[in-house]
Amino acid sequence: MSVAREFVDLPRPELARLLREGHPVDPAAIADFVYRGTSLGIPGWVERLAWKVFAKTFHCDPATGVLRGWNVRIRQQGLDGPLDPLLRRGRPLTFGHFRVVACDEYVMPVAVRGLMLDYGLGGNARLDPTARLRDPVVALTRGSADVLLGWSYLDLGVARVGTPSYFLLERHAPLADVVAPPRAQN
To answer: Which residues in the chain belong to E strands, given as ranges?
Structure first.
């Protein structure tokens, strides 16, 4: 049974508290794993337009040592359903590529002691709305990367705008297929 069931009904202030009190994440502990993602804190009508469950992957490039990742759209089959990716031309439908960096390099709306998923460094097109997303991510248990909590905000350059979107990541499986990063285009 998914750990996410314990979090889906938490109010945003409680999710914000958990994020602030979260623990650092060892980048090596998440490298080359797929995580089951669950959207938290957003209105139900938004979830129905988008998704509740997704996959988030992390890959460390052996040649450069860069830790990066991407999101995978999943067929919506409930919190405990399988992570069956939606396909396009026979390949999983990926989006929102990001690079993983230390949070301390960022000015954020809240103080977080974790890692940052920076979609602006992920090779997404400049006009792609995800390029402005930043997701600070923390571990919910000190020293463990099995369950992570994240939050999304927009970095507009002159301002950082918080969103109501939180997400839980549960370690699912080792990464089997590496997806090439997109080539940024405007």
So the answer is: 33-40, 53-60, 67-73, 87-88, 91-92, 94-102, 115-118, 133-139, 147-155, 160-174
